[in-house]
Design brief:
Elements lengths: L1 H10 L53 H8 L8 E4 H12 L3 H13 L4 E2 L5 E5 L1 H4 L26 H9 L6 E2 L1 H18 L7 H18 L6 E2 H10 L17 H21 L8
The structure holds 2-acetamido-2-deoxy-beta-D-glucopyranose (NAG) (4 copies).
GO molecular function: metal ion binding; peroxidase activity
Keywords: Heme, Iron, Metal-binding, Oxidoreductase, Peroxidase, Signal
Family: Belongs to the chloroperoxidase family.
Length: 284
């Protein structure tokens, strides 16, 4: 794993220029850093690591509930800044159950799309969750299940009305099935095409829509992909890992094969719901 990790990340260096020199190559991974380098992450020095604490007024959060939950538990820096890629990948793996093969591709993609940068000359990471907020139409996109479209409101702050709309698609008011989530997704797409003259849902953005639905299902769903509503409420509203309600991070973590399979399920459901709903001009 280690060698493929280094290989993947080294392949990225060609897309970023102006790396400060360190030794013979840029230390991209935490393990590459010289002994005695202060940690980027507050994780190792935070006595309350794992304990949920809602963000305060200066903590920065992202459009992504999963990353926010990791920060709210101190698995990533609680202030939402200087987040090393190694921490993102390893914390997604151990505390969300999303394996590092998938996580590495995500951070590679985020690097190519310009969201990652060099933190104080020490390695690659997110200077702040804000760079995900600023990534409209590259990483962050319209028709989110929980955030407003950028042209209509905040693409970072949760919108409780939208979250309630998502939950209203539960037919038994106890679980969200993949079909429920796909129907809620289509309602958001329809809403964006109806109200947002700037709506942009080309293939890059729609792929993100289906993959995020897949990730929600992977993190919270049972073996049939059904998500307990009380777990979804804690995760999406409080951005809290619902361990107090009996959830634990899937172990072993879900790898890329599982994630792409559920993403394909959402793509297929999305395609047939969109066809039945008047064929909004999405790219699949
Ligand atoms: C918010 O918490 C951060 C740690 O995440 C701390 O550094 C900062 O001083 C706090 N800000 C306020 C306004 O309490
Ligand atoms: C929406 O589109 C218009 C016209 O292209 C543009 O002037 C405006 O800046 C866009 N607004 C946002 C928030 O993207
Ligand atoms: C939240 O979403 C609803 C429904 O789309 C919208 O009417 C409302 O303006 C949004 N609220 C905020 C604070 O953006
Ligand atoms: C669904 O359940 C929640 C709490 O479990 C309750 O507050 C809400 O009123 C219920 N909604 C419906 C439509 O029954």
């Amino acid at each position: 794993m280690k060698s493929s990790t280094s290989f993947t990340l080294l392949a990225l260096t060609s897309v970023v220029t102006g790396f400060p020199a360190y030794g013979t190559r840029m230390p991209l991974l935490r393990d590459d850093l010289p002994a005695g380098t202060p940690e980027f992450s507050s994780r190792d020095s935070d006595p309350a690591v794992g304990v949920f604490q809602a963000p305060n007024s200066t903590d920065v959060r992202s459009p992504c509930p999963g990353l926010n939950a990791l920060a709210n538990h101190g698995y990533l820096p609680r202030d939402g800044t200087n987040i090393h890629i190694t921490d993102i990948v390893s914390q997604m793996d151990s505390n969300l159950g999303i394996a590092s093969d998938f996580g590495l591709i995500q951070v590679a993609g985020a690097t190519v799309l310009g969201a990652m940068s060099i933190i104080d000359g020490l390695g690659l990471g997110l200077k702040s969750f804000e760079s995900l907020t600023e990534s409209h139409n590259t990483i962050e996109h319209d028709a989110s299940l929980t955030r407003d479209d950028t042209a209509l409101g905040s693409n970072t702050d949760k919108n409780q009305t939208l979250i309630d709309q998502l939950f209203s698609y539960s037919k038994d008011n106890l679980t969200l099935t993949p079909t429920d989530i796909a129907e809620a997704r289509q309602a958001r797409i329809k809403d964006s095409f109806t109200r947002n003259p700037n709506v942009t849902l080309h293939k890059l953005q729609t792929d993100a829509c289906w993959r995020e639905a897949g990730l929600l299902t992977m993190v919270l769903g049972d073996q049939n992909g059904n998500i307990r509503l009380d777990w979804a409420r804690e995760f999406l509203v409080d951005e809290k890992l619902p361990t107090d309600l009996g959830w634990s991070a899937p172990s072993p973590a879900h790898g890329i094969i599982d994630i792409e399979a559920i993403t394909q399920t959402y793509t297929d459901l999305g395609q047939s719901l969109n066809a039945a709903d008047g064929n909004f001009p999405l790219e699949f």
